[in-house]
């Protein structure tokens, strides 16, 4: 498996009762734009979150923010020519408990204009498209191959090509449900602090905790993520 293809969360999510959730921000509820500050040991990053384009994903992220889930976690996976990923492990590499996975909104956000371009925030997941919980990543280069694959109109789809293979007269539902075509849901974009992201992406990495590679040798701590508006 190409390690660049699956931005894995490394473990099965642990579902907690949704009834215990705190109220979400009014911006998330009304579909507006929220802004958050990601305070890290390398500096501050600010980002806009687009609830009008990925409403369930943004609401899910902001709930974790409200719950202070991200406080004290680390960027545990850093690949200089790809992305930086965090939000799932504390400084001792102990995985944090999460709620049930959020519904995949990749095609919706793509249709609304959000792509895995430099500086965008997207949800990490396993090879199961419906497995994203709290972990997220920031693209440090344009990663078009992480975008959902558009499905042509028609049912059956008259002709469809994927990775050099041509499919003809395939049921639309079959293509819409193919895991390899889902891509990754983009839900926000860095508005300031890309210099901090660049600092994180170039930090030396190696083995750490349970991971054989790509772990910063000097931990990059997410001190907090706070909602600004």
Structure description:
The protein has 229 residues and is an alpha+beta fold. It folds into 2 domains: 24-148 and 183-227, Beta Barrel (Cyclophilin), CATH 2.40.100; 149-182, no CATH class. Helix content is 16%, strand content 33%. It has 5 helices and 12 strands. The protein has helices spanning 26-30, 55-66, 106-111, 172-176, 194-201, and strands at residues 33-40, 43-50, 73-79, 83-90, 120-123, 136-139, 157-162, 165-170, 186-192, 205-208, 211-216, 221-227. The chain has an 8-stranded antiparallel beta barrel.
Topology (elements, then pairings):
Elements: H1 26-30, E1 33-40, E2 43-50, H2 55-66, E3 73-79, E4 83-90, H3 106-111, E5 120-123, E6 136-139, E7 157-162, E8 165-170, H4 172-176, E9 186-192, H5 194-201, E10 205-208, E11 211-216, E12 221-227
Antiparallel strand pairs: 1-2, 1-12, 2-9, 3-4, 3-12, 4-6, 5-6, 5-9, 7-8, 10-11
- Contiguous runs where pLDDT drops below 50 for at least 5 residues: 1-6, 10-26
Spatially, the strands of the biggest sheet line up as: 1-2-9-5-6-4-3-12
Radius of gyration, Cα only, in angstroms? 17 Å
* CA distance, first residue to last residue: 40 Å
Q: What is the CATH first-level class name of the largest domain? A: Mainly Beta
Helix/strand-derived class? alpha+beta
* Biggest sheet architecture: 8 strands, antiparallel, barrel
Percent in strands: 25-35%
CATH topology annotation of the largest domain: Cyclophilin
Give a count of the beta strands, DSSP E runs of length 2 or more.
Answer: 12
The SSE string, one letter per element, is HEEHEEHEEEEHEHEEE
Shape: globular
Query: Can you tell me the CATH architecture of the largest domain?
Result: Beta Barrel
> What share of the residues lie within helices?
10-25%
Helices, by number, come to: 5
